[in-house]
Design brief:
This protein has 7 helices and no strands. With 153 residues, the chain is mainly α.
């Protein structure tokens, strides 16, 4: 809710309007929940619904004197989305820097070097199950760290 509100506020520029569109977005998300594809990003889907609701809201508000032209509105949507990705990247970097050297090396071999679990296990002289379990725990730790960073933002 906080991220959706922040996104809507950044493109609408008015807290009352952002709240109004957020409530409408929540209704649409509930009504169309069966259309969400499991395994895809709920965040991306909800942000897309929010941007469509914001556009619909803007259509209704055309009568007001100060209304952004469509190209400015689209630019704000793109900029807000990129800013969110930048914040996530920074949070990930911060969380990665907190990992012990062994865990960072493991993550680096798996994701940056693109090695399979089997290859990582062989290089690090560990069992595949141990590598799988450790990577799961590291990913969970990174996820929790990033969630904490998101709440602080």
């Amino acid at each position: 809710q906080g991220r959706l509100y922040g996104f809507l506020l950044s493109i609408l520029g008015n807290p009352d309007q952002a709240n109004e569109v957020l409530q409408e977005t929540n209704l649409v998300l509930c009504r169309k929940s069966s259309e969400f594809q499991p395994g895809t990003s709920f965040k991306a889907w909800s942000f897309r619904v929010a941007s469509l609701q914001a556009m619909a809201f803007r259509q209704k508000q055309r009568r007001e004197k100060l209304v952004f032209d469509e190209s400015v509105f689209e630019e704000l949507v793109c900029e807000s989305t990129n800013m969110d990705k930048d914040n996530e990247f920074e949070a990930l970097q911060t969380c990665l820097n907190k990992l012990p050297e062994f865990q960072l090396e493991l993550i680096s071999k798996r994701y940056m070097d693109g090695l399979s679990i089997r290859e990582v296990a062989k290089k690090m002289e560990k069992k595949e199950t141990a590598i799988t379990t450790t990577i799961y725990r590291i990913r969970k730790s990174l996820y929790n760290c990033m969630q904490l960073k998101a709440l602080q933002a």
